[in-house]
Amino acid sequence: MRETYFGELIERVENKIKKQFPKKWDRELFERHLMGYSMRTEQYRLIAWLDSRDISKPAVYIELYDHNNDQQESKNIAVNKPELVKRLLVELKASLTLKNNAAAI
Hints:
- The chain is 42% helix and 20% strand.
- It is of the alpha+beta class.
- The protein has a domain at 34-104: Arylsulfatase, C-terminal domain, CATH 3.30.1120.
- Strands 1-2-3 form a three-stranded antiparallel sheet.
- A hairpin with a 3-residue loop joins strand 1 and strand 2.
């Protein structure tokens, strides 16, 4: 993909990620294994960006949106609600683990 029309765009996005997450940058992870997993409650949507090889690892990035106040999901409030994020992340990972175990049967 880097040799195509999109090569320059990929490089710009990659550089932004490196700036935003200098300690977390890992090309193999970001290109092949980073997956956004999402769940929604009546009020919130949580998106956890996880290493699909091992979802028990800490999230690379978390997004949390309050649909009562932001139906367009334009303001990530995850840093303002750490306890809610922690609780929802436990629920999300438990759900993903159940689904993975059921698929293995």
